[in-house]
From TrEMBL:
Keywords: Cobalt, Cobalt transport, Disulfide bond, Ion transport, Metal-binding, Secreted, Signal, Transport. Belongs to the eukaryotic cobalamin transport proteins family. One of its GO terms (biological process) is cobalt ion transport. This is Transcobalamin-2. It comes from Psophia crepitans (common trumpeter). Cyanocob(III)alamin binds at residues 46, 91, 206-208, 216, 238.
């Protein structure tokens, strides 16, 4: 996002010649760094950060000459089913159309032919039966009474989201599990677990992981655990 902002400042001549040259040099370094860190799978970071990175090549008009961009586009097209929420789709669509957010400034929406028709959200396929997920809550902070605050099996309908699993755990009266979420543009954000609130000022958050230690790439409402999986909610720092 910062790289896009730099390009905007330079392109719109909002800065003097000296700073413009520095911004161009910074953009060059950013692109070189992104090419260096591109994974074997073609992604810059993960599937959700890749469209952002592609927008930088688009905005700086380097996408045609940069092979890394072509590899990223191929990887993105192979993984379109990962974009299930409005927020992630909004980040991928410009890149898929070869546009960056900077193009929005000159987009004439009034000239749109208004031919878009809303479609109902595609519901995930119905899965019958039940599953059991192990839910673990970890607090590695020094002030926590113990590192592991909760460890219980939670039965839930097969195909349920992690949010459904948390609700099922809370409904299991015997285990005293509680949680809270906050609505954000990306969907519900897990803000409090077992009465412990993650605090912005302390740069702490409830990280979602699948055992042994893979950080999830989706939020509680989108991630659908499998039968037998162990999910960890860990109070972490960013
Ligand atoms: C900064 C950031 C964070 C910070 C936010 C705190 C802060 N004060 O800055 C922290 C480290 C806490 C964070 C956590 C997580 N994040 Co995050 N985060 C981002 C990032 C880089 C920028 C968001 C932002 O500032 N937007 C600009 C502001 C103005 O908009 P905003 O709507 O107010 O932003 C808020 C929400 O986005 C919210 N938020 C941040 N991440 C997430 C993730 C989810 C699922 C939800 C519902 C909300 C949310 O915090 C922001 C600040 O308050 C985005 C990347 C991106 N391209 O959007 C990833 C991103 C949104 N995060 C992502 C993920 C996966 C997570 C986690 C689920 C990771 C994990 N395994 O635990 C957790 C959320 C867990 C939970 N408790 O629910 C993914 C979401 C992908 C998806 N499929 O939806 C993104 C797109 C990164 C990526 N490429 O994988 N994140």
């Amino acid at each position: 996002v910062a790289a896009l902002a730099f390009t905007c400042l330079e392109r719109e001549r909002l800065v003097g010649a000296g700073l413009a040259a520095e911004l161009r040099a910074a953009m060059h370094r950013v692109r070189r760094r992104m090419v260096e860190v591109q994974g074997q799978d073609g992604f810059f970071g993960n599937v959700y950060s890749t469209p952002w990175a592609m927008q930088v090549f688009i905005a700086t008009k380097t996408c045609r000459t940069q092979p890394a961009y072509g590899r990223a586009m191929a990887a993105l097209l192979e993984n379109l089913d990962a974009f299930t929420t409005a927020a992630t789709m909004a980040q991928a669509l410009p890149a898929l159309h070869g546009r960056s957010y900077l193009d929005l400034a000159t987009t004439q929406c009034r000239e749109e032919p208004d031919t878009l028709t809303p479609i109902g959200p595609e519901l995930p396929p119905e899965v019958s039966g039940n599953m059991t997920v192990r839910l673990v809550v970890e607090c590695p902070e020094r002030w926590c009474p113990q590192r592991q605050l909760y460890d219980q099996p939670v039965p839930a309908p097969a195909g349920a989201s992690l949010l459904d699993v948390l609700r099922a755990a809370a409904a299991q009266g015997s285990s005293n599990f509680t949680f809270d979420t906050q609505e954000t543009s990306q969907g519900p954000f897990l803000s409090r677990v077992l009465g412990l609130e993650a605090r912005q000022q302390k740069r702490s958050y409830w990280q979602l992981l699948t055992a042994p230690s893979t950080s999830l790439q989706m939020g509680v409402a989108d991630y659908r655990p499998s039968d037998g999986e162990t999910l960890i909610l860990r109070l972490s720092r960013w």
